[in-house]
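User: Just a sanity check before I run the rest of the batch. Below are the structure tokens for the first item. I only need the designed sequence back.
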């Protein structure tokens, strides 16, 4: 009896059992990946949907983390209460902002209005330049425009553009529904200082009691979660503190450089591009797209001014890359430039807006840190 049971062939061979085990493991892995992707998409859509609610409290929270050392310094050095320290900080910011409004804003508004009025002039100059210097291009375009295939293609593109415009009009109307949209944005902007005031009043460490809130996790996993959250907050603080300072310095350098070479609207362009540099590379991309055509087509412009404007960009970018970022930011994020560009577009798309682009670098650095920790601790690799 025992001999027959020992010699009875099994249902599956060893190779088949390994194949079935691999298939089951693959199905389980695919299911986990699918659930993770669905969860991420749902979370991203919720963030995008509630962005108008989330961005004021996010901005206030980041500002509180950045400004907390200043409040603590006032409190300790001047022996003031927490409320008095926050009030003095607000007063200093109000004075600086008031001085900025009085001295800089009128010039910025004047240059901005002049820039808007100059856009049609620049477009007409560009068209005249092409017609005068590249008549062959115009001739080719006019000749092929009579081709039935090209006509059909252009008609199709025009129809698609009209459909896109007709689809976008309701969204545009919804996004800027007159005074309601303006008041909604103004209300969101006005509530940021209120959130910030109460955040600064608190002396509590945001992660101080986090481990007590995660008692359902094992101690090792709980310690890792607390470490990652604290690391993420450190990245957020250092990134925004450094990026704001870098953006301000770059804005001033660009303004000075544009003014020295004779580029029109130097003040509004320089400061705007400096602010946009809070999102890595965005200021440079937008700046080159705006300033180079402007340098070429402004009344006293041309190839020389275009070259000088490009030199200003190269000099400022080298100052930022070789001096400002290493001195102010160091290698805090440890991300490759290509990774940074991809992260900006990825998180901007994932969160459906500017909020994702602003948080792209801290979020990416956080996930890179989490992956390195998991690989070293749980995958037993070095």
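Assistant: Here's the designed sequence for the first item:
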């Amino acid at each position: 009896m025992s001999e027959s049971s020992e010699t009875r062939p099994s249902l599956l061979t060893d190779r088949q059992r390994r194949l079935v085990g691999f298939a089951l493991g693959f199905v389980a892995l695919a299911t986990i990946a699918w659930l993770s992707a669905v969860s991420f998409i749902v979370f991203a859509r919720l963030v995008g949907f509630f962005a108008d609610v989330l961005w004021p409290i996010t901005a206030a929270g980041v500002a509180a983390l950045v400004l907390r050392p200043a409040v603590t310094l006032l409190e300790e050095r001047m022996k003031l209460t927490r409320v008095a320290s926050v009030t003095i900080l607000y007063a200093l910011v109000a004075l600086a902002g008031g001085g900025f409004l009085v001295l800089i804003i009128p010039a910025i508004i004047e240059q901005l209005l002049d820039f808007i009025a100059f856009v049609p002039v620049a477009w007409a100059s560009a068209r005249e330049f092409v017609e005068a210097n590249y008549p062959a291009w115009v001739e080719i375009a006019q000749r092929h425009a009579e081709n039935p295939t090209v006509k059909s293609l252009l008609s199709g593109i025009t129809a698609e553009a009209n459909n896109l415009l007709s689809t976008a009009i309701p969204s545009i109307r919804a996004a800027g529904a007159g005074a309601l949209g303006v008041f909604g944005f103004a209300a969101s902007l006005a509530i940021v200082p209120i959130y910030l005031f109460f955040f600064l009043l608190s002396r509590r460490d945001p992660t101080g009691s986090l481990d007590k809130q995660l008692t359902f996790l094992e101690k090792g996993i709980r310690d890792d979660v607390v470490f990652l959250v604290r690391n993420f907050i450190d990245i957020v603080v250092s990134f925004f503190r450094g990026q704001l300072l870098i953006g301000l310095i770059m804005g001033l350098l660009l303004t000075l450089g544009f003014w020295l070479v004779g580029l029109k609207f130097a003040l509004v362009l320089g400061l705007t591009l400096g602010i946009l540099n809070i999102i890595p590379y965005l200021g440079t991309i937008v700046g080159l797209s705006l300033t180079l055509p402007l340098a070429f087509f402004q009344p006293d412009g041309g190839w020389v001014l275009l070259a000088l404007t490009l030199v200003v960009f190269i000099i400022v970018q080298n100052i930022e890359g070789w001096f400002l970022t290493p001195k102010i930011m160091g290698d805090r994020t440890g991300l490759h430039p290509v990774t940074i560009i991809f992260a900006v577009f990825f998180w901007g798309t994932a969160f459906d807006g500017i909020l994702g682009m602003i948080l792209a670098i801290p979020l990416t650095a956080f996930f890179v840190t989490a992956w390195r920790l998991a690989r070293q601790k749980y995958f037993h690799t070095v």
